[in-house]
Amino acid sequence: MVDVSGKEGSVRKAVAEGAIRMDPETFEAIRAGETPKGEVLQVARLAGIQAGKRTGELIPLCHLLPGTSLKVEVELDPELPGVRVRASATLAGQTGVEMEALTASAVALLTVYDMAKSMDRGMVLEGIRLVSKEGGRSGRWIRNEADDGLDGDPQPPGR
Description:
Alpha-Beta Plaits, 5 helices
């Protein structure tokens, strides 16, 4: 584990996102609230928040960060068709919150999969990525969408 005790504290922010594609019938069932396990979007949102708060327990050598503020947005996207997730994490501290935002996004998407898998085992999680981060020694970083090749379309392996 990296020793951050000598680092100066600052406000750290990170935003991550991802999506899950599904059959149109599954999308419509989620929209209508007609899935076997209940309200998919709200449960996924809560699962993302819960996972983000527990990132240090889930990822080896990741710092436990009490006091992290997490916001998880879960929205239907008919163009996929599927669900998009955007997670934001904020903390005043000595280390970044990128892993918390990424974990929140990933677990929210996994929760959508779990809640709808009886209807569609072919769902695909994609584009889980850091969108931006700020604070700390490295300052601000924002993903350049034009350079990353992740516009929602799956990329060939090895990219």
